[in-house]
Design a protein that fits this description.
globular, about 180 residues, alpha+beta, seven-stranded mixed β-barrel, two-stranded antiparallel ribbon, FomD barrel-like fold
Length: about 180
């Protein structure tokens, strides 16, 4: 199974590198599996645990989109919901993918309820000019558009529903 190296830059100058299995490589979408994920902390939205260290995350990258999206799980494989990172469009450089985080996230619970996350981090990045005004406006428009699609039931895209953890793990084993 081919792997990709995600170079994930966060303001002001933090860089995280994640190695993930590339399970689906199509011009309009990419699907990777981070299994087990190297995220080392339990993540919560409110009082609900949405991710446990060592659990799997199925990631979706849409070239030219201003977001990526993860299907989050607990260690036992229980699907908890969708985590959307607002980013500048990914730069695909062979097996190295470069992403720039815009500090603004959207959590969509598996029942369809959603919550904007990290607004304070986004505001700080804009105030400190780590994110320029035009990029910040583009991020706000992207967030508004995603929320509108969630409310109308048009989001997440069908491909995200289609590639659940079991299917992605099978594709990893069989090579697609």
């Amino acid at each position: 199974m081919p792997q990709v190296e995600i170079h994930y830059r966060r303001p002001p100058d933090r860089l995280d590198i994640f190695v993930q299995d590339l399970v689906v490589d199509r011009p309009d979408h990419k699907v990777t599996l981070h299994d087990p994920s190297t995220v080392g902390t339990t993540l919560q939205v409110g009082d609900k645990v949405i991710y446990e260290p060592g659990a799997a995350i199925v990631w979706f990258v849409f070239p030219d989109a201003w977001h990526d999206l993860g299907r989050f799980h607990l260690k036992d494989g229980t699907f908890t919901g969708y985590y959307v990172n607002l980013i500048t469009p990914v730069r695909l450089e062979g097996r190295i993918w470069k992403m720039y985080d815009l500090c603004l996230d959207l959590w969509i619970d598996r029942d369809g309820r959603f919550q904007v996350l990290d607004q304070d981090e986004f505001d700080e990045a804009v105030d400190r000019l780590w994110i320029d005004t035009a990029t910040a406006e583009r991020a706000r428009r992207e967030l508004d558009s995603l929320i509108e699609e969630v409310r109308s039931g048009e989001w997440p895209p069908e491909v995200v529903r289609e590639y659940d953890l079991a299917r992605v793990r099978t594709l990893r084993v069989t090579g697609g």
